[in-house]
């Protein structure tokens, strides 16, 4: 009898715990559709991609109601995908304030990684970080030499790997998994462009900072801890989380030491601010006491992470999409080969309409930051005049959803059609701006908090594709089937490609 009673009490307390953890707060808008909790937890037992999850559970309620209640990172939040709701959120920073993991789950592994930084903070700190870092992120004349040099190096590596793959496969069409080398390329370009440092990931083996990125990406999005961040409070029980905290600290210290020991101070005094890189600007701010050591570290890390990760994953999506869409690949190559130079500059690539349209369309169908819940209401709000939201409620957006909505983009919304952007670069830029302001195209967010690195990312992609398509053509390996990431950054997993030189 005692054993049975103990078991029953155990079930009772477990049930109370589940209710406490998963119950919906009474002040959340109950008229919004509720996405079942298991949808957020599905990656614990299933490998469905973000596209599959969206199509099966999110599309209909989001397109019909514009917003839903969803379980995310240990709490119920509001997810939005209707343009007029999105623009209202983006335009009202003082009501729907940016806030990241350092506010939502400050004890967590991810909070220890990102800290309080230019992307996820609000108010005076955001203004301070922006004042310091913006000149290094929004240059009118980024040096494209590192982009060209590293892109050429990446192409050479991929071609050599293709040669080895063919030899190992007894002359058959062996394929090349592209992600690891694309990551090295993205880190190298980011380092030379923002941190005044060449990590030489493409030239050297086992560069620790790059190896740590692979570990960190696997660590952050482990489904159990991502959905139950409270477990990060107990690293002594969950030893994998203790190791995760150690990894985050190793990355931080290594990056910090690289930047501070990089000889640079001699030329800072005479160098114009427009020529200075983000690392220099942050270091000067640290030296004069504008920011403290913790803020310096956090903004170094977020620069490193975001300035390589998004372009890396967009490039992975590019290999997939153009590898199966050979008509677009060939047309783009024709435009590139028609340019009377093999050394791309900012002026050259920015005048190329089909290159511009292709990248805009890639960002529409494969936005790297596909979903983000990183705003919190500072006081009660009424979104769109009909959704009453209490204070301290987390609100987010789904870029993938709004950008493939047939009600917005027409019946071909899920098809890859660069021509939809227009025929001239001016038309395309105008459409890009219009759709962003309307909240129908938000790969870089919008309004006052749009990504400061937007121009750099577009330029880097243009340079990479210019170099790549002049030298190689590619198809998707016959054994590869598309599988997108289940959460986090949107991109194909393990994309495998067959390369050939253009002259072949």
From TrEMBL:
CDD domains linked: CYP56-like
Top-rank taxon: Eukaryota
Residues holding heme: 451
Cofactor (UniProt): heme
InterPro entries according to UniProt: Cyt_P450, Cyt_P450_E_grp-IV, Cyt_P450_sf, Cytochrome_P450_monoxygenase
UniProt keyword terms in alphabetical order: Heme, Iron, Metal-binding
GO molecular function terms attached to this record: heme binding; iron ion binding; monooxygenase activity; oxidoreductase activity, acting on paired donors, with incorporation or reduction of molecular oxygen
Similarity comment: family membership: Belongs to the cytochrome P450 family.
Name of protein: Cytochrome P450
């Amino acid at each position: 009898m005692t054993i049975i009673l103990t078991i029953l009490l155990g079930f009772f307390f477990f049930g109370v715990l589940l209710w406490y953890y998963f119950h919906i707060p009474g002040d959340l808008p109950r008229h919004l559709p509720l996405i079942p909790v298991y949808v957020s937890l599905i990656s614990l037992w299933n490998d469905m991609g973000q596209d599959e999850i969206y199509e099966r559970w999110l599309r209909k309620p989001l397109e019909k109601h514009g917003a839903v209640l969803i379980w995310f990172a240990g709490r119920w939040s509001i997810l939005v995908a209707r343009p007029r709701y999105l623009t209202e959120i983006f335009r009202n920073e003082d009501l729907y304030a940016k806030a990241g993991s350092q506010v939502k789950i400050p004890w967590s592994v991810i909070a220890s990684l990102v800290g309080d930084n230019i992307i996820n903070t609000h108010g005076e700190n955001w203004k301070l970080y922006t004042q310091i870092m913006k000149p290094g992120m929004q240059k009118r004349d980024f040096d494209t030499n590192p982009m060209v040099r590293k892109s050429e190096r990446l192409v050479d590596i991929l071609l050599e790997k293709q040669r080895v793959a063919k030899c190992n496969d007894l002359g058959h069409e062996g394929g090349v998994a592209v992600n690891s080398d694309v990551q090295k390329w993205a880190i190298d370009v980011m380092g030379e462009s923002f941190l005044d440092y060449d990590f030489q990931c493409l030239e050297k083996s086992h560069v620790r900072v790059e190896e740590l990125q692979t570990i960190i990406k696997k660590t952050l999005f482990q489904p159990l801890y991502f959905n139950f961040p409270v477990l990060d409070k107990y690293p002594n029980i969950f030893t994998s989380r203790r190791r995760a905290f150690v990894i985050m600290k190793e990355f931080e210290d290594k990056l910090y030491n690289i930047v501070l020991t990089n000889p640079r101070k001699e030329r800072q005094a005479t160098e114009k601010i427009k020529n200075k890189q983000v690392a220099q600007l942050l270091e000067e701010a640290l030296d004069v006491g504008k920011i403290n050591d913790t803020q310096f570290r956090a903004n170094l890390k977020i620069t490193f992470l975001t300035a390589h990760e998004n372009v890396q994953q967009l490039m992975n999506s590019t290999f997939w999409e153009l590898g199966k869409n050979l008509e677009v690949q060939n047309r783009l190559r024709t435009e590139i080969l028609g340019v009377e130079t093999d050394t791309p500059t900012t002026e050259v690539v920015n005048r190329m309409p089909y290159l511009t349209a292709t990248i805009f369309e890639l960002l529409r169908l494969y936005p790297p930051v596909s979903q983000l819940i990183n705003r919190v209401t500072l006081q009660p709000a009424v979104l769109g005049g009909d959704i009453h939201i209490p204070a301290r409620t987390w609100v987010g957006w789904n870029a993938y959803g709004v950008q493939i909505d047939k009600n917005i983009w027409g019946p071909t919304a899920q098809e890859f059609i660069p021509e939809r952007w227009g025929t001239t670069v001016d038309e395309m830029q105008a459409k890009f701006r219009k759709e962003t302001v309307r909240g129908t195209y938000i790969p870089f967010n919008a309004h006052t908090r749009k990504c400061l690195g937007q121009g750099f990312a577009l330029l880097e992609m243009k340079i990479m594709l210019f170099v790549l398509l002049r030298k190689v053509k590619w198809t998707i390996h016959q054994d590869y089937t598309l599988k997108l990431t289940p959460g986090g950054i949107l991109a194909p997993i393990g994309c495998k490609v067959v390369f050939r030189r253009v002259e072949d």
